[in-house]
């Protein structure tokens, strides 16, 4: 049995009640605590979000990567736990590349975090390495956008209204199959 989660339209699993806290809420609380400079509480919330997402979605889901990146940021920018931050950034990057490729937009955040981290610990060789990685990523993204723009210009064939409606209805009937994270 599947229920529809009103805020996000992802199917809700039967064990998820409307009063349970989806993992996204834990992540939001983590960022809130971080902004309030309550770093231990922030860490607990980020870890809880990661644990729940891993349980629901697996260890290599992009939602897991996002939460891992948030915890890495907390460790890097606020708690000076650079070894933990480095490990988490690298994990987030690996998941993002595996799922979406080298040009994935979410990689920029992690690359910039690593540059800041390596600068903080005085590892300038790694600063230079990840500065180059980020530069190459930017060039790749620029090429991807140029190709997408060119393809958009090519696909200017007019469609009948009925064809558009049928394509929309087909896409809606297939719907997402992910659990609701809030």
Give me a quick take on this structure.
With 182 residues, this protein is an all-alpha fold.
Describe the structure.
With 182 residues, this protein is an all-alpha fold. It contains seven helices and two strands, in the order ββααααααα. The chain has a two-stranded antiparallel sheet. Helix 3 runs antiparallel to helix 4, helix 4 runs antiparallel to helix 5 and helix 5 packs antiparallel against helix 6. The two termini are 19 Å apart.
Distance between the termini: 19 Å
Order of helices and strands: EEHHHHHHH
Order of the strands making up the biggest sheet? 1-2
Assign the structural class, choosing from mainly alpha, mainly beta, alpha/beta, alpha+beta, or little secondary structure: mainly alpha
Task: Compute the average pLDDT.
Answer: 82
Shape: flat
Low-confidence stretches: 1-20
